[in-house]
Each structure stands twice: as C-alpha cells, then as structure tokens.
C-alpha cells in the first residue's frame, strides 16, 4: 500500500471488495449507520455507499451521531452520506429517526468507562434496547468486542463463537449486556441480527500497530505482559461487517472479525523497530493468556483479509515515521484487568 495522505487513507479504508459489491447488490433497502462518527463509522458508511453505487443500487446510506465535530459531518456529506444529528440515549430522538431495512449499530462507550460506569452501561445496554425496539422490523448488525470472551491461553488459537463468556471488568460486562439485550429483542420480535465481535481493527491513525510504533519512535518501553494480539485492517473489518447483513438471523448470528494470525507483541515490535530504524525496549514478560479471537468462520464466509500483516507494518511504520495524523486514541490492548 502506498498511502501518503489522509484522503488516500480514507479512500483505501472505504474501497469495497467485489464480493461486497455483489452482496449489497442483492440487499434490499437503505442502510442506517448508528454511531457513524466513531473511528470506523465514516469509512464503513462510505464503503456501503461506494459498493451500492458500483452495484447500480439506488440506496440511501444515512449516518447518525451526536457530531461534536462538524468537520466529520461535512466529510460524510461530501461522500454522499446523509447525516442526522441525534443523541441515541434520547428515546424521542431514536423514535424520530427514519425507517431503514438495514441498520448497522456502532454506538458504544469504552474509553473513560472507569469512573463513568453508569454512563457506560447506559450507552452499551440501554441504547441497544431503544434501537432494537425502534427497528424491530429491520436487519441489525451490532458491533461488539472480543473482550466478552475474556483471557484465553495463547496456544488455544483464540476464542470461537461458541465459547462461553467470561468478561473482565465493567466495560466488557456492559458489552456482553449489549449482546444480551440485542439477543432478547431478536428472539422476542424475530428481528434478524448479526453480532460482530471485533478484535482489533487497525489503520494508520490508530490501532495496536500504531500504538507499538509510536512507543518505539518515542523510545518508550513496550510492556510484554499482554504478549499476543490479533489485528485486521479496518477496510477488511468494514467489508466483513457489511457482508454480515446477508447473514442476519434470529437468534443472532455471531461472527468473530479479526485477522488470521496470532501475533507476538515482541516479534511485531521488533519488526516495526527495524522499519523505523529505532531500538526497542521491553519490560515484563509474556503472560500465557491474552484476548484473542479465532475468525475462521468470518474468513470462510466473507473471504480472508485482503491486506496482510506485512503490508500493515510497512504502512504504519512509514506513516508514524513521517508524523502522519493520529487520532490520539490508544487501543488499551495491553489492559488485562478490564479497566479502560
């Protein structure tokens, strides 16, 4: 990948694979993206619009958020995404949203959840109830997280969709609450849904690889306690999530979305350090467990990720080395006690 500007990056993250174009060609109706102003929302909405246009489908893609950043809303408008400013915790605001046969739910709270536990639960469990009730006759794709599984042995290859839940900390527990609320409404109302357990999406402005590269560049030590992780290019994660609209079911279809490899923090940091031409310092030792997902199901259904780890490493190192734009939102991937 040769990405030098934010515009090129947004273009790459929203470029739809042909398989998604074909999938959305068969999908009826508009797509509503709730929580569109987050890290993934803008490029996911744009990918949905681009895939629909390429498929020759006249479809509205509508993005809903509080839009505290007017520039983000303007960018979405320029991409042909209709935008609505709304607080999803406001029941009247949710009731006033337009009908849509297809809903992608991306709203939620993670960072700052420690100390704001009540708001975390409201965002991650109450908002899903409002949305599931309002859109009982729609397909709903709901984003979740691999944190709901809890720590598993590194040698296990990661949690699979049928594993039992063992969330650590209030954030992960509230995310399981989000899943259970959606599941309840799916079973009660027959609403077809899919739940995306993501772990972790990465682009050049944020992600585990960006966290590691930034620390190496700033000569900060890398903590090895959480010694392994998964990663997927955000564009691939966008495509897999949108493709899951075709698999929505009642009860919900559960899908892990991540890359195909279990990566070592130590080895990955050394690879980034070589690309950055900087030394790397480590502290602590690897624990035998980590937060890991096995995503073979999504790869079988939607294809393996198109962007390789090597490509991500090359692009992240180049971007960080050139002081490219950062979202300033570390992933917290090293957190083991669930406190974000």
Descriptive overview:
40% of the residues lie in helices and 15% in strands. The radius of gyration is 19 Å and the shape is globular. It has 340 residues and is an alpha/beta fold. It has helices at 6-13, 18-25, 41-54, 70-78, 91-95, 117-134, 169-189, 208-217, 234-243, 265-276, 296-302, 309-321, and strands spanning 31-34, 61-65, 82-85, 102-105, 139-145, 152-153, 193-198, 201-202, 222-223, 228-229, 232-233, 253-257, 263-264, 282-283, 289-290. The chain is built from twelve helices and 15 strands. Helix 6 links the parallel strand 4 and strand 5 (139-145). The two termini are 32 Å apart. It has one domain: NAD(P)-binding Rossmann-like Domain (Rossmann fold). The chain has a seven-stranded parallel sheet, with helices on both faces.
Tell me the CATH superfamily.
NAD(P)-binding Rossmann-like Domain
Biggest pleated sheet: 7 strands, parallel
- The total strand number stands at 15
Relative strand content? 15-25%
Q: What brief labels describe this structure?
A:
single chain, Rossmann fold, seven-stranded parallel β-sheet
List the helices and strands and how they pair.
Blueprint: H1 6-13, H2 18-25, E1 31-34, H3 41-54, E2 61-65, H4 70-78, E3 82-85, H5 91-95, E4 102-105, H6 117-134, E5 139-145, E6 152-153, H7 169-189, E7 193-198, E8 201-202, H8 208-217, E9 222-223, E10 228-229, E11 232-233, H9 234-243, E12 253-257, E13 263-264, H10 265-276, E14 282-283, E15 289-290, H11 296-302, H12 309-321
Parallel strand pairs: 1-2, 1-4, 2-3, 4-5, 5-7, 7-12, 8-11, 9-14
Antiparallel strand pairs: 6-15, 10-13
Helix pairs in contact: 2-3, 2-9, 3-9, 6-7, 8-10, 8-12, 10-12
């Amino acid at each position: 990948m040769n990405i030098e500007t934010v515009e090129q990056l947004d273009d790459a993250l929203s470029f739809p694979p042909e398989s998604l174009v074909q999938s959305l060609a068969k999908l009826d109706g508009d797509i509503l993206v709730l929580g569109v102003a987050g890290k993934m929302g803008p490029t996911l909405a744009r990918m949905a619009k681009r895939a629909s246009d390429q498929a020759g489908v006249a479809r509205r893609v509508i993005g809903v958020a509080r839009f505290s950043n007017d520039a983000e809303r303007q960018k979405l408008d320029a991409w042909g995404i209709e935008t609505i400013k709304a607080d999803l915790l406001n029941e009247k605001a949710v009731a006033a949203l337009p009908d849509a046969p297809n809903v992608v739910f991306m709203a939620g709270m993670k960072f700052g959840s420690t100390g704001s536990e009540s708001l975390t639960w409201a965002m991650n469990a109450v908002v899903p109830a409002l949305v599931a009730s309002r859109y009982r006759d729609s397909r709903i794709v709901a984003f979740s997280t691999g944190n709901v599984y809890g720590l598993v042995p590194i040698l296990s290859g990661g949690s699979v969709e049928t594993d039992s839940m063992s969330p650590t900390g209030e954030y992960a527990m509230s995310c399981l609450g989000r899943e259970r609320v959606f599941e309840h409404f799916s079973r009660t109302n027959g609403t077809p849904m899919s739940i995306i357990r993501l772990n972790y999406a990465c682009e050049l402005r944020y992600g585990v690889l960006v966290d590691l590269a930034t620390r190496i560049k700033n000569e900060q030590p890398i903590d090895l306690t959480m010694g392994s992780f998964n990663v997927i290019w955000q564009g691939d994660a966008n495509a897999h999530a949108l493709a899951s609209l075709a698999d929505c079911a009642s009860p919900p279809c559960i899908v892990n979305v991540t890359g195909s490899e279990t990566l070592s923090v130590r080895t990955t940091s050394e690879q980034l350090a070589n690309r950055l031409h900087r030394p790397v310092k480590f502290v602590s030792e690897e624990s035998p467990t980590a937060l890991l997902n096995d995503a073979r199901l999504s790869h079988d259904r939607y294809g393996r990720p198109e962007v390789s780890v090597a490509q991500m490493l090359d692009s992240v190192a180049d971007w960080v080395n050139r002081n490219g734009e950062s979202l300033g939102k570390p992933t917290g991937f090293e957190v083991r006690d669930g406190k974000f």
